[in-house]
């Protein structure tokens, strides 16, 4: 059996009882390590379960096999090997269906005649409701990637515009770069990887504002402006979770600390209950929209 097990929002204890019971009886345990990351290190995970904190290979009482992008997308058969005669666990931070890659793994297993079972958990897709915005008022989710000197995509902004036109909020999932190679090392075939990078709300807001300026230069009416109300979230579900509500301009400078970050672009008019909830997280600096929140 192939078990796809959601780990929740990143803390060791976020796994479900059902997921933990299954994991402990599996012969191999993989941790998907590129669509999201754990908010605690492997040593902490070991301590939470009474394991030795000196062992980097212990995870929930089983040896941890990190599965990076290359392993999951190009060498999935290695993960599925012998899963028809033994139990294999594939761990995903959040919920297993938070990324299409995991659907692909299930389809591969099915074609090989390997049964599978999914054990769900919380993910940013539903936990984002902690800020007070109502989940059923969210439109299509978008991803904001790190720009480079030669690649600065803006196409996702069309989805933000469509959401705003429909009065829907937009959840922006911010880029993470784990086990990435520089172009030079990639071309030369050198297995040398860049340090991990995690996009902050500040960086995302700066890129969004540049897109707004580019649209104005092209004579377009941007669906988002510097004064658009946004919500920044960091480490959702952790004890040091942070939420800040304010303008897109304010999001460029608000300090939410370490990763992982997410950004919400609100859909314009808000329900009174949403406004009241956002007032709990209002950035104290003065601006036209943050003042309206503070005034509630």
Tell me briefly what this model is:
This protein has two domains: 2-122, Cobalt-precorrin-4 Transmethylase, domain 1 (3-Layer(aba) Sandwich); 125-280, Methyltransferase, Cobalt-precorrin-4 Transmethylase, Domain 2 (2-Layer Sandwich), CATH 3.30.950.
State the CATH superfamily name of the largest domain: Tetrapyrrole methylase, C-terminal domain
Number of domains: 2
| CATH architecture assignment name of the largest domain | 2-Layer Sandwich
Query: Gap between N and C termini, in Å?
Result: 53 Å
Report on the biggest sheet. 6 strands, mixed
Strand tally is: 13
**What is the average of the pLDDT values?**
84
Please, how many helices? 11
Low-pLDDT ranges: 41-57, 287-296
CATH topology of the largest domain, anyone? Methyltransferase, Cobalt-precorrin-4 Transmethylase, Domain 2
Radius of gyration: 21 Å
Helix content: 25-40%
The CATH class of the largest domain is identified as Alpha Beta
Strand percent estimate? 15-25%
Q: Secondary-structure element sequence?
A: EHEHEEHHEHEHEHEEHEHEEEHH
Protein name: diphthine methyl ester synthase
GO molecular function, one term: diphthine methyl ester synthase activity
GO biological process, one term: protein histidyl modification to diphthamide
InterPro entries: 4pyrrol_Mease (IPR000878), 4pyrrol_Methylase_sf (IPR035996), 4pyrrole_Mease_sub1 (IPR014777), 4pyrrole_Mease_sub2 (IPR014776), Dphthn_synthase (IPR004551)
